[in-house]
Amino acid sequence: VTGVQTCALPILAWFWRGRLDRAKALLGESLAISEKIAGRRSMASVTAIASLAELCYERNKIEEAEELLASAMTGSLDACLLITAQTIYSLLARISKLRGEKAESWILLDKLEKVAMKRGWVRLEGHCYAERIQSDIWEGDGVSATRELGRFEQYLETVNPDVIAAGARYRSQVSPAPR
After folding, report:
1. Roughly what angle, to the nearest 10 degrees, separates helices 43-58 and 20-38?
2. Rounded distance, CA 126 to CA 18, Å?
């Protein structure tokens, strides 16, 4: 059992209560445990790093988030969990956008989309479209947002709904809803 797995529920509990300082402290502890047991490049450590970076980003500590994300990019994101890859690439893309680097932001989303396609993560592919559309809307670029929405609609026509349903069924079997 890794540090992240051991601390996951308490971290989420503090996070959902809005006690971000406590969640961040526990994530720091879990990262230290993961690094000691499995190393900095392990999936557990990268997951903790991604979560820490997300907390920093949400608290407008952009430089701190960026530092954490840079350290997470040293490992292979092909081997990490969907949510970890989504968090890392999405945050890096958003930070690039904040810095006025729209092209870099799109390159990062393209890389994330390729990982999603390679691994068959339909939901993550859709997330990439949504990130681009949202970014264009925030920037006030309705033309680009409309174009990206058109691409997203074309993509949706190619998606097999049975694949999405199978994923939902699998998730419900792995972690059934509380009764």
Report:
1. 160
2. 28
pLDDT at position 170 is: 56
DSSP 77: G
Count CB-CB contacts under 10 A for residue 124: 20
Question: 41 vs 132, which has greater pLDDT?
Answer: 132
Q: Give DSSP secondary structure letters for 142-175.
A: HHHHHHHHHHHHHHHHHS-HHHHHHHHHHHHHHS
Alpha-carbon distance of 26 to 23, in angstroms, equals 5
Taking every pair of Cα atoms in the chain, the longest distance, rounded to a whole number of angstroms, is 50
pLDDT for 156 beyond 90:
no
d(CA 69, CA 89): 9
Cα–Cα distance between 30 and 71 in angstroms, integer? Answer: 16
pLDDT in tens, 115-145: 899 988 888 999 999 999 999 999 999 999 9
CB atoms within 10 A of CB 67: 14
